[in-house]
Design brief:
Blueprint lengths: L5 E6 L6 H11 L4 E2 L2 E3 L13 E3 L2 H9 L3 E7 L2 E6 H10 L2 E5 L2 H11 L3 E7 L3 H10 L5 H14 L8 E4 L3 H14 L1
Parallel strand pairs: 1-7, 1-8, 2-7, 3-4, 8-9
Antiparallel strand pairs: 3-6, 5-6
Helix pairs in contact: 1-7, 5-6
Length: about 190
């Protein structure tokens, strides 16, 4: 039997640049699988089914919860998000490395569930001022929403010590190289 795979859990507060880091990392590591979460959220024009999310209805999602099909799941703003367990187990058995893009609570749940099969990485902004700048530069949110996102991000940052590794996203290439080094040594 071959070597087991690993789950690479990456999480970060809003505004840290997690999606950008993950997208760049996956471009340079095409052999790694990027796990796709399920959601009951309505699809957006810029999101593709089975690309960013698998969109399912709330009844199906609830049925999957009842059947234990999710490794982790959460409700956020009236919608459900979850990571199906079956493909993760299959990929681990096949020796595949799987990158998971999760929120902080789901990331800790998955780390606790998969223990030695998981490497958890918490992505940090360079500092609080840069985090504020990134959240306000999006230009799509009102000042009130920006302040709420910042408050949430600061609470999420308190989870950083629950993760195996912390990587500061002050330079995209450097952050990706540091993540690669963590995975290779893990």
């Amino acid at each position: 039997m071959g070597e087991r795979g690993r789950l690479i859990i990456i999480t970060a507060p809003s505004g840290t640049g997690k999606s950008t880091v993950i997208r760049r990392f996956m471009e340079t590591h095409p052999d790694m699988i990027h796990s796709i979460s399920c959601t009951t959220r309505k699809t957006r024009p810029d999101k593709r089914d089975a690309g960013d999310y698998t969109f399912i209805d709330k009844e199906t999602f609830q049925s999957w919860i009842d059947q234990g099909k999710f490794a982790e799941w959460a409700e956020y703003v009236g919608n459900f998000y979850g990571t199906p367990r079956e493909p993760l187990d299959k990929w681990l058995e096949e020796g595949t490395f799987v990158l998971l893009d999760l929120e902080v609570v789901g990331g800790t749940e998955l780390k606790d569930l998969y223990k030695e099969d998981a490497i958890s990485i918490f992505l940090l902004p360079p500092n609080e001022e840069e985090l504020k700048r990134r959240l306000s530069s999006r230009g799509t949110d009102s000042e009130e929403v920006q302040q709420e996102r910042l408050r949430t991000a600061l609470v999420e940052m308190t989870y950083k010590d629950k993760y195996d590794h912390r990587v500061v996203n002050d330079d995209l290439d450097r952050a990706c190289k540091e993540i690669e080094k963590i995975i290779m040594e893990g």
